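Pasting as-is:
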Amino acid sequence: MNSRTSLLALYLTITSLAGIAQAGAIFRTTVENYAEDNAFFDAQESYVTVTKVEGNRMRMDTQGTDGKVASTVLFLGDTDEMYMIDHDDKTYIVMDREQIEALGKQLNEAMQQMEEALKNVPEAQRAMMEKMMKGKMPAGDYEPPSPAVVTDLGESGEVNGIACDWKQVSRDDVLEEKACVCDQGAIAGGEEMVALANEMRDFAEGLMKMANQASSFSMLGGGTMGDFSSLTGDLGGFPLISEHYDGEGKLMRRSTFESADEVSIPDEEFTPPSEYKRQTLQGMTR
């Protein structure tokens, strides 16, 4: 994650001048939501994501069809940080390796204290309390997911005049996704977007491992992070359409590419608003 080629290091040095807009790209995608547990949108409701990419930095705004931004995710690849911003509450949290390690240690200490306290509790009451605690404490060593299997479906498609080929992604014979994939060079900023999504995937997997599969960190395995699962080298390109399934064949959401443009992006786009309040991960799990 932290290693960089000499050319990329040179590029980041040249483009690190604060306050100067840098060359980048902006992607617009329409998402049809079919999931009932979406934090911001109802089932059968559509929304829009506007993703801005510059170098190894990304900003993704999720907004309703009325244009109101519900949430923003920032990813800073050079410092391995992810910001989750809630505009209604005017708050944000930061997820990085140091935060996850500290919280994982805190959760493990709390579990040890609870186990010690349970030693003096009658057996029947202890069994009931242990049942209540199940799923609220770290669940053991991290086990990486099974390898994804990508299959070419032999069907072609087209989105906004751009040709694509349909593929599907499965794990352990369970369908996760179908996508219509084009050459990443066919989209302005497509190569940068795919590379950055791969970096985000590696970042998320690292956090999951350190979090020890604590149920409190279920947000790391889905939601916004999950939206980037399709942008991997496994698909061999840029997904113009991406359909995500729930493991039982039910469609959860469909994302359709609308447009991509090369733009200049100010540095302030990659920081949370100064008036917003930072929340700690510890506070989020209480």
